[in-house]
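TL;DR need structure tokens for one chain.
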Amino acid sequence: KNMFFFSVPLIFSQILEVMFNLSDVAVVGHFADYKALGSVGSTTTLVTLFTGLLIGLGSGVNVQVANKLGAGDKKATKETIHSALIICAAAGIFVCLICLLFAGPMLSMMNTKPELLDQAVLYMKVFALGMPATAVYNFGNGVLSAVGDTKRPLIYLSISGIINIVLNLFFVIVCRLGVIGVAIASIIAQYISATLIIR
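>> reply
TL;DR here they are.
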């Protein structure tokens, strides 16, 4: 029972992270044109891939921090947390650079329709600017869950998820920014979740 209640917030946290992109798809599908929907939808596989990579990195942080905490070594725990933050932030920046440099070729290899490619590349590049924040959030999630706190990361991600949806609607309906609007909303939400968890 304890393991189940400990795991449920972790499961929902990971589902919510992937749903940032899906909420973008839903909003442009309802309030923008079919090209915007197709463009954002064509990035879902790449977004899920890179988000999954950063979630996995956070799981590695969880194991290492829990190991040091279990051994009762405060100095090693502190060093592990600081090293993990640097590694995760660097990984987020690396993923961001990969997307900025190779979004076009990756989406072309996935047979994205030519009429959707430009907007899909634009969305992917703007969305990628939030990858360092995603990495930092998953670092924090790993550290907090190592000490048995899986609820706060879920709360922080839920808050940023709600902000993401509200900003999606604002940028698409009010500002009429379409693809770039939902990408900007996602970036803002990702940095909010990272800031909350680091605090």
